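Anyone up for a design puzzle?
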């Protein structure tokens, strides 16, 4: 009987030992799974944070690029307006110069016409004067002959 109890006690101890080992093994596996899940969760969070930062950096880069582009566009527009204004001014100057030249040309042509007419008048007066002089000399010669 004592041996039987001893045997049962040993079997019970052996079962207890196996149960403890099994429990410990399960606990280790469960701890390993938790650690693995925690590592995976942390890696995912780090990856998501890295992607979020990259996207934010890209967004800022694009925004900066847009601002630069808008600034350049505004500078180009200012230069375009300046060039347009300068072109208008040059066209106006050319128009005024052409107008002044045409007025000068017209005055010159009128002066030429006036000079031509005055010259013709002078030639006519000279011819009349020469003719009068000839007539006068002719009359004077006749009077002397008489």
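Challenge accepted. My sequence:
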């Amino acid at each position: 009987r004592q041996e039987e109890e001893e045997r049962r006690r040993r079997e019970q101890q052996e079962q207890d030992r196996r149960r403890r080992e099994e429990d410990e093994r399960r606990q280790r596996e469960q701890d390993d799974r938790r650690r693995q899940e925690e590592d995976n969760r942390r890696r995912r969070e780090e990856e998501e944070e890295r992607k979020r930062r990259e996207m934010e950096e890209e967004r800022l880069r694009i925004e900066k690029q847009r601002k630069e582009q808008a600034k350049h566009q505004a500078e180009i527009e200012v230069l375009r307006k300046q060039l347009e204004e300068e072109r208008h001014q040059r066209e106006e100057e050319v128009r005024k110069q052409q107008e002044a030249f045409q007025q000068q040309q017209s005055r010159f042509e009128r002066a030429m016409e006036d000079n031509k007419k005055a010259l013709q008048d002078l030639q006519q007066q000279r011819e009349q004067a020469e003719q009068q002089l000839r007539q006068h000399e002719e009359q004077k010669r006749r009077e002397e002959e008489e």
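A detail worth pointing out: The helical segments are 2-145.
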